[in-house]
């Protein structure tokens, strides 16, 4: 995380992070098949991120006293996963209008993002991430 943070801030440029290897070119297929392949790739890429949380919720909901509480947990999880994508889809046209105004701030956004990555990387390395819980206690409902 720290090394990637240095890369994002621009302090240290790592050429390996700019490397890209494509196995399939999407213009090879027609649009319907390429969108299916893109969706499958996206799903395969998100499986390691979604899997542990979903399995934890499934295990927890299976131990609840009523099925309705488990359904409620899974519905809230599904909403939490779907709402950002839906909002992004609805806001993409508006974003394209303001894109040129936002692009000039990209170096500042990258520097701040990289700095946050460096700080989080150091906190993970030193096992002090729990310090955040003292400042963000109001998120614990």
TrEMBL record:
Annotated compartments: Membrane
Membrane topology qualifier: Multi-pass membrane protein
Annotated InterPro entries: Cyt_c_assmbl_TM_dom (IPR003834), Cytochrome_c-biogenesis_DsbD (IPR051790)
Keywords: Membrane, Transmembrane, Transmembrane helix
Main location: membrane
Domain of life: Bacteria
Residue ranges of domain Cytochrome C biogenesis protein transmembrane in the record: 32-125
TM helices/strands, residue ranges: 36-60, 66-87, 108-138
Transmembrane as UniProt keyword: yes
Family the entry assigns: Belongs to the DsbD family.
Designated name of the protein: Cytochrome C biogenesis protein transmembrane domain-containing protein
Lineage summary: Bacteria, Bacillati, Bacillota, Clostridia, Eubacteriales
């Amino acid at each position: 995380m720290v090394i990637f943070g240095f890369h994002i801030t621009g302090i240290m440029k790592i050429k390996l992070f700019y490397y890209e290897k494509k196995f399939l070119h999407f213009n090879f297929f027609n649009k319907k098949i390429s969108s299916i392949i893109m969706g499958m790739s996206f799903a395969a890429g998100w499986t390691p991120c979604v899997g542990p949380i979903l399995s934890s919720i499934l295990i927890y909901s299976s131990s609840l006293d009523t099925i309705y509480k488990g359904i409620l947990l899974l519905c809230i999880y599904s909403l939490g996963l779907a709402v950002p994508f839906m909002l992004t889809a609805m806001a993409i046209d508006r974003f394209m209008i303001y894109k040129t105004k936002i692009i000039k701030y990209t170096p500042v956004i990258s520097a701040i993002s990289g700095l946050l990555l460096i700080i989080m990387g150091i906190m993970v390395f030193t096992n002090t991430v729990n310090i955040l819980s003292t400042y963000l206690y109001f998120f614990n409902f």
